[in-house]
Amino acid sequence: MLKKKKLFSNNNKKDLLRYAGLGTQLLVSIGIAVFTGLNLDKWLRTLPLFSCVLPLLALIAVFYKLTRETKK
Where would you tag: which of 10, 32, 49, 59 has the fewest CB atoms within 10 A of its CB? Predict the structure, then answer.
């Protein structure tokens, strides 16, 4: 009789949770950067400078962290 493979083994569950956590960090950091940028633009009465620059910086930081985490 053939043994059925488990769809989610313990190792797959750990990887799934790890990558779900990284995706959540990406979304949260971009959201915080946009919120902070909009408030800074309103407070300093500037063009949408900070609301464009801060999310880009957050993306760079998160992708750097993502590449370091996935190299392991």
Answer: 10
pLDDT per position as a tens digit, 26-49 = 899 999 999 999 999 999 998 899
Structure tokens given for 60: 């760079």
List all residues 6 or more positions away from 8 whose beta carbon is below 8 Å from its beta carbon: 16
Nearest alpha carbon to residue 22 among 68, 61, 66:
66
Residues 6+ apart with CB under 8 A from 30: 55, 58, 59, 62
Q: Are 22 and 69 spatial neighbours (Cβ–Cβ below 8 Å)? A: yes
Other Cβ atoms less than 10 A from the Cβ of 37: the count is 21
Whether 15 shows a pLDDT value over 70: the answer reads yes
pLDDT for res 27: 93
